[in-house]
Design a protein that fits this description.
Structural class: alpha+beta
Number of domains: 1
Shape: globular
CATH architecture: Alpha-Beta Complex
Strand order of the largest sheet: 1-2-5-8-9-3-4
Radius of gyration: 16 Å
Helix content: 25-40%
Order of helices and strands: HEEEEEEEEEHH
Bound molecules: zinc ion
Length: 190
């Protein structure tokens, strides 16, 4: 089932996610719904906060974007990033290994808004997946950017927090409008 995506201005986006300790049937359904929601919006990553759940859970599938390369290393050996897609990350921990690099980012909670964000070019990731397996890999390029963007969500951090002042200033009117529209919609729902 496709779920509504929480937009900027919804307080859930600022909540740190609780650790996931058990993969229950309900969680499996939530993961399936998150993939369906992400695909419907042509996204490559979605965090639990974006569908209204403060959990350490994100889903990623970078395969729809073919013009921005990714790298993957499994046990220190190069591997095909597509081989680990789609990716479910529970309780992920990310360690930067590469130098910061600027790149364009968008976010399903900020429709039609994009900005250049600096992030480490590659990262080491450890997490568990929905089968209870431990995942450990090093990734670079788009996949590293996507993982970092999503793991930020799990800690209540948004991509606008990592924009430089000039970029955020350029987007300020749109951000204020979006925030006001979200708050008004939430008030109507109550
Ligand atoms: Zn996002």
């Amino acid at each position: 089932m496709k779920l509504p995506v929480c937009k900027y201005g919804d307080p859930i986006l600022r909540k740190k996610g609780a650790l996931v300790t058990e993969v229950t049937p309900e969680l499996r359904q939530l993961i399936a719904d998150m993939f369906e929601t992400m695909e419907a919006h042509h996204g490559v990553g979605l965090a639990a906060q974006q569908i209204g759940q403060a959990l350490q859970l994100t889903v990623i599938d970078i395969r729809p974007i073919e013009d921005r390369p990714s790298t993957l290393e499994l046990d220190g050996k190069p591997a095909d990033p597509k081989s680990i897609m789609p990716l479910v990350l529970l309780n992920p921990v990310v360690k930067p290994v590469g130098a910061p690099e600027a790149g364009s980012e968008g976010c399903l909670s900020f429709p039609k808004l994009y900005g250049e964000i600096e992030r480490p070019e590659s990262v080491d990731v450890t997490a568990t997946n929905d089968k209870g397996e431990t995942l450990s890999f090093r990734c670079g390029g788009l996949l590293a950017r996507c993982v970092q963007h999503e793991v930020d969500h799990l800690h209540g951090i948004l991509f606008i927090d990592r924009m430089d002042r000039a970029t955020k200033e350029d987007l300020k009117l749109d951000l204020d409008d979006l925030q006001a529209a979200t708050k008004a919609a939430l008030k109507r729902k109550k």
